[in-house]
Amino acid sequence: MEAIWDVFCGGYDCFDGSEKPCGFDYNFLSRSSSCLTQALIICFDSLLFILLVSNIVGKSMKRVHMSYQIRNGSGLLILSAIFNSCVGLVYLGLGIWTLVEKLRKDHTALPLQLWLSTSFHGLTWLLLSSIVSLWSKQLPRALLRLLSIAAFVFAGVVCVLSLFDVVSSKIVSAKMVLDVLSVLGSVLLLLCSFGCFSCQENEESINGNGLYTPLTGEANGSGKLDPVTPLAKAGLLSKISFWWMNPLMKTGKKKTLNIEDIPMMREADRAESCYLQFINQMNEHKRKGQSSQPSVFKVILLCHRRDILLSGFFALLKVLFLSAGPLLLNAFILVAQGQQSFKYEGLVLAVSLFFSKSIESISQRQWYFRTRLVGLKVRSLLSAAIYKKQLRLSSEAKLMHSSGEIMNYVTVDAYRIGEFSFWFHQTWTTSVQLCIALLILYKAVGIATIASLLVIILCVVGNTPIAKLQHKFQSKLMAAQDERLKTFTEALVNMKILKLYAWETHFKNVIEKLRKEEHRWLSAVQYRKGWNGILFWSSPVIVSVATFGACSFLKIPLHANNVFTFVSALRLVQEPVRSMGDVIAVIIQARVSFTRIVDFLESPELQSSSVPRKCVNMNGNYSIRISSASFSWEENSTRPTLRNINLEVKPGSKVAICGEVGSGKSTLLAAVLGEIPNLEGNIQVNGRIAYVSQTAWIQTGSIRDNILFGSEMDNWRYRETLEKCSLMKDLELLPYGDLTEIGERGVNLSGGQKQRIQLARALYQNADIYLLDDPFSAVDAHTATSLFNGYVMEALLGKTVLLVTHQVDFLPAFESVLLMSDGEILEAAAYDQLLAHSKQFQDLVNAHKETAGTERLADLSATKSLRTSSKEIKKSFTEKLSVVSDANQIIKQEEREVGDSGFKPYIQYLNQNKGFFFFSLDVLFQLAFVACGITQNSWMAMNVDNPNVSKSRLIIVYLLIGVTSTIFLASRALLTAFLGLQSSKSLFSQLLASLFRAPMSFYDSTPLGRILSRVSMDLSIVDLDVPFSLIFAVAATSNAYASLGVLAVITWQVLFISVPTIILAVCLQRYYFASAKELMRLNGTTKSMVANHLSESIAGAMTIRAFEEEDRFFKKNLEFVDGNASPFFHNFSANEWLIQRLEMLSAVVLASAAFCIVLLPTGSFSPGFIGMALSYGLSLNVSLVFSIQNQCNIANHIISVERLNQYMHLSSEAPEIIEANRPPSNWPSIGKVEIIDLKIRYRPNTPLVLHGISCTFEGGHKIGIVGRTGSGKSTLLSAIFRLVEPVGGKIVVDGIDICSIGLHDLRSRFGIIPQDPTLFKGTVRYNLDPLVQHSDDEIWEVLGKCQLRDAVEEREAGLDSLVVEDGSNWSMGQRQLFCLGRALLRRSRILVLDEATASIDNATDMILQKTIRSEFADCTVITVAHRIPTVMDCTMVLAISDGRIAEYDEPATLIKREGSLFGQLVKEYWSHSASAQLF
User: Fold this and answer.
1) Helical H segments across 911-1024, by residue range
2) What whole-number distance in Å separates Cα of residue 1064 and Cα of residue 1372?
3) Are the CB atoms for 425 and 312 separated by under 8 Å?
């Protein structure tokens, strides 16, 4: 037995040199290195080893391909496996190294205790960590927990014994360090074994080619895998090394990436999963009764707490390993001075440097990757929550949150909050890092550390007032940005109206004024950010000067080892400290954005329960029942919008609603839909509703998508719907049939075509109740009649119909007619009864007869439904569709640059306002700052141990260099802010001018979302991020190269490693940028799709709710959000992929330098320069990370400049003013219009829309223009206003060719009342007279003539009464009257009416016609009308067919002429009127 003991420990323990055999001294149990302790450790390891192996063999493990889907702590499991494997490997390596040394020196492996226990312990630990990580699913849970508890206790005991050794011997060995680390590893094992995780194993058999064959239906091709990101199935090493990104990176190198090449997100990371988790957590809080409205921030934290904690663990690990650097450096300097603790200590330190830097890199990459992923998920769920909210927003809340603001919440605020999570852990890691650094500093310079602490505290305290100001300014900036975007959005949506009224310059000036205010707050924010930068970038310089000064004062000796331990500790924390300003800025931005979003999410919603909808019951007594109800758009209003409403509509009945303008007709339909708050009474609805709005809402997409509206395709029903809505011929003549894309808001359709598609959408739904809000006002009499017959009377037979209409001749066909006035139902009876007993109804009918007899009732007996001729339809689509693409699809693919655009976007940015000059100064100051830093450290390295240089001189010179560097730094920071402000100012001015000068064809073919994403998010990035990203990229890169340069100069031998490393790094960066730039561009284009869908949904929210399609639209939004998230996710993953590889290269360079220092003879380097080299080397990977991050940031941010530039150089309209050819101030004085051989086409190589029209409108004549749909009437008006330029011929007005003068001079001299009435957000006065050219008396007079005076006087504010966005608090008729008021105020000699009275009742129409006749008696009035009576009293009538003049003469002459087109239209009209009378 003693022989075995001798073999094991050599007979005597060598720990203290005593002669007593170790086997007999049980006090040795208190020492970890005693033979008895080592023997017990081996015994315990053997038991553990046997237990593990027996369980593995007993389970007869199959070869499996494991796909882990770990619910809790997957990162923890990965970390445990890596950490414990590393500990086990180092134990094993230490044991083997000890054996090799023993054999080399003594030529014997005895005694065994010196190496066997360490090796065996390492092997056991390695096995234990592997089993817990890889086979935990197949081991009994109890056994797993028993093993982890035993490992924890065992590691704890060994650690305590090692600490006793350290205290007693005052020597630290590598094994003792490993013993301490093994406790940390055992804690991780304990957490893993007690954590609840699940693994899904996909067993695979191995085929002959060595490939895994799935044992599922997919093996034989029965299924197809979804293109989900490889991360979903990545293994441990793949996740750690980002190897799963390789396939995408290879694809990006081979070809330009497209959206189809980007894999989808994992299921758990998609918007739907994130949103559902958020909602479930919110509901859980409400169930627990914690509060009626849980904190959104708290819920978001709870949803992602595991990911946040895990990333926090990686952050802590990174900080700990980073902090090991100065300690290793101190040891290196001591070794260089010949004070090594053991042989080969230098080599061990070099290897330790490499491993510590590698683990630090892995930890930081996992930290950054996981926090960015959390941020992306938060952004997705907020985008989803905002979209969901806007679908339920109440009318009152819409006044507080305009569509522009809602767009900002998604495109700006949600993105800012998503970015915050990346910085989240830096709020505390910087503090931890500082604390550890202070401990290291204390070890280096003792009590002088107090000086360091005081300076750091002063920096933080000094930043507090700046941070408060920053928060205030950021809030003001966001509010100013909202105001600017709100007005910008309104202008873009209504650009055609602005051009027709020649108001572009005014609105452009308004936006410039708002931008000026925004720029004021932007300046405040950027300069405060600059001051932050000065404070935090200069803090390391100030700290070091203060500390060395304190050392001199306190007589603390300064030597190379403590000075450069101090410098390296300071260099390691200076990047986090410098980024503290950015952290504060991001926190402030996120807080402001979060407050705005939470305020929106807590806004009032529509009360869906206010209108109970039940399934239809045809045997029921009613479809709609309203009892003694009052409704108001404003809940606190003293006078409800609708009062004392009592209504019961039976199933299958047809009810018409009529009344004067503003009487509450559309509001009644809104009440049935539940859109308006119910103040009192009850309302019930039985059945599904289909709704057709007064203003057509058409989605971007195909005609089929607009009609189906989410329903399943039923070919028979679909075809019948097309026939009833007279769309068959239209579709046959289109190149893609019903798959033809129609533009945003249906810009390539006529008003009638849009309404027919709306009607088809409603009919296809096969609903029970149809609410039709004046759908026939946009079509001519023939069309309206045919639609009324085929649609209302036939297709909707047996359906409940509520039709709002101004067409009195439709009313006899209805079972009941509601007569409304001033928000009340005056009468509700059959047509004949009302006509007999109601004086007000009689007045309405008589007013209609006076305008021209009855109008527009369908020819009930006619078998001919609307059949527009092939030429008419073709003409309509030639006129509108040719505006767009040669591929016959209106919406063009969004523009994006491809490939490497090099320095082009940077040049575009720096070309603004002497940008190159300021940037050159910036770079110069930065290089001077870096040079000062190197000079400072070189001075210290050369003279710290120089007895000829006094301490006071050493520190004074050091101080002077530091002050100089701070001056350079301050200049750089302020210049950067100034450069950014100047560039932003210039870019915005160019963008604004370009957009306002762009022709209408651009707006017809470009979805609003694309423009808005540029003037919101892209502009915000250019304003706030680009300037500082640009200079930080230069700063971080110069720091990285300075570190590398210092390392190479001092240890020139490292150049043999560093030069190839630099070449490899450049190659890796180029490889990365091939994919990264395209991913960022795709991120921009997909972001536009999110914005566009949101914009459309806000506009059509009422229709979406009416059809109960909220869920489908929400699902579509989730798809768009995921489509945007995927390129963003893979972009930042690619970023981590690159940085990790570069960090490993920098670790190789640092380790190489360390090996050079160790292997070269002692004295080759002075201790001071060794300290300097390694202090720069230790910060090399930190500098490199910041360099690459900032380069990637600016590469991503500069894409926004690229995107802005795409819309900064659009083709422009003709000049607004031609100074050399301005018309006289009284032009046009006569109003004579000569059209000479006018030819119009919308684009080159498209057919002519107008074919050589020639005619003359004499001054003072009243000209009526008639023709069927698509004949060219609107194109002629567009030509008069030069919205489209002629390709041949000319238009001469009072002797002046309109093409020879400026557009502003032309348009401002004409008056127009457009077909689509448009009001702007503001006041009544602003809407009538935005240029402030008229007095209040003139405005009141005009309101009286427009029948609006009473409506305005009823409102308390009078002319200052509020007009909300789109004028939605005024009825459609009232909006049209406001447009008439504008024309009356302008009093032009030429007035154009484009179906201006379509939305008003006949009585009002009659008064208005008289007003126009009297007020414009001596003016030329050009009227395009569907109502034949409107043109009957015209001087001349111009009939257009297929872009040519069919006839032009007096109405009476044309009626008598045989084969006259006008005569035919009049005949059709009177035949319909006769039918109405017969009915």
Assistant:
1) 915-943, 951-997, 1000-1005, 1008-1013, 1019-1024
2) 67
3) yes
- Are the CB atoms for 77 and 70 separated by under 8 Å? yes
User: What 8-state DSSP symbol labels residue 649?
Assistant: E
- The DSSP 8-state label assigned to residue 712 in this structure reads P
Q: What value does the mean pLDDT take over residues 837-851?
A: 75
Provide the pLDDT confidence category of residue 1162 given band limits of 50, 70 and 90.
low
Task: Report which of 409, 413, 401, 404 is spatially closest to residue 488, judged by C-alpha positions.
Answer: 404
DSSP string, 799-847: SEEEEE-S-GGGGGGSSEEEEEETTEEEEEE-HHHHHHH-HHHHHHHHH
Contact (CB, 8 A) for 73 and 195 = yes
Residues 1349-1375 as b/e (b if ≥16 CB within 10 A, e otherwise) read eebbeeeeebbebebbbbbbbbbbbbb
Phi, psi of 704 (to 5 degrees): -60, -45
Lowest mean pLDDT among 619-628, 711-720, 1462-1471: 1462-1471
Q: Hey, is 452 helix, strand or coil?
A: helix
Q: Is 240 exposed, middle or buried, given 0-12, 13-18 or 19+ CB atoms closer than 10 A? A: middle
Closest CA to 650 of 622, 615, 625, 687: 622
Q: Are 386 and 594 in contact (CB under 8 A)?
A: no
For residues 1419-1440, give the mean pLDDT: 82
Q: How many residues does the structure list for the chain?
A: 1479
Q: Are 1238 and 1286 in contact (CB under 8 A)?
A: yes
* b/e 401-418 (16+ beta carbons within 10 angstroms → b): bbbbbbbbbbbbbbbbbb
Is residue 15 within 8 Å of residue 31, measured between CB atoms? yes
Q: Average pLDDT, whole number, for the chain?
A: 78
Amino acid at 154: F
Find, among 709, 723, 1018, 1031, the residue nearest to 864 by Cα.
723
Q: What is the pLDDT of residue 1403?
A: 65
Please report which confidence band the pLDDT of residue 655 belongs to, taking 50, 70 and 90 as the band edges: very high
Q: What does the alpha-carbon distance between residue 454 and residue 456 come to, in Å, rounded to a whole number?
A: 5
Q: What are phi and psi of 1245, to 5 degrees?
A: 65, 20
277 vs 290: CA distance, rounded Å: 18
Q: What would the two tokens of residue 1443 be?
A: 């872009």
- Tell me the β-bridge partners of 1390: 1310, 1420
The tens digit of pLDDT for each residue in 1006-1018 reads 877 788 888 888 8
Q: What is the DSSP string of 39-107?
A: HHHHHHHHHHHHHHHHHHHHTTPPP-EEEE--SS-HHHHHHHHHHHHHHHHHHHHHHHHHHHHHHHHHS
1333 burial type by CB count under 10 A (0-12 exposed, 13-18 middle, 19+ buried): exposed
Give tens-digit pLDDT for 959-994. 888 888 888 988 988 899 999 999 999 999 999 999
Degrees, nearest 5: CA angle 1453-1455-1458 = 95
Q: How far, CA to CA in Å, does 1011 sit from each of 748, 1452, 1475? A: 19, 50, 50
Query: So what's the pLDDT on residue 879?
Result: 42
Lowest mean pLDDT among 298-312, 839-853, 917-931, 1050-1064: 839-853
Most confident of 51-55, 361-365, 546-550, 1188-1192: 361-365
CA–CA gap between residue 1277 and residue 1250 (Å, rounded): 11
Q: Which residues pair with 691 in a beta bridge?
A: 771
Q: How many CB atoms lie within 10 A of CB 344?
A: 13
Report which of 1146, 1298, 1365, 1302 is spatially closest to residue 360, judged by C-alpha positions.
Answer: 1146
Is the pTM for the entire model greater than 0.70? no
Find which of 1044-1058, 1405-1419, 1464-1478 is predicted with most confidence, using mean pLDDT.
Answer: 1405-1419
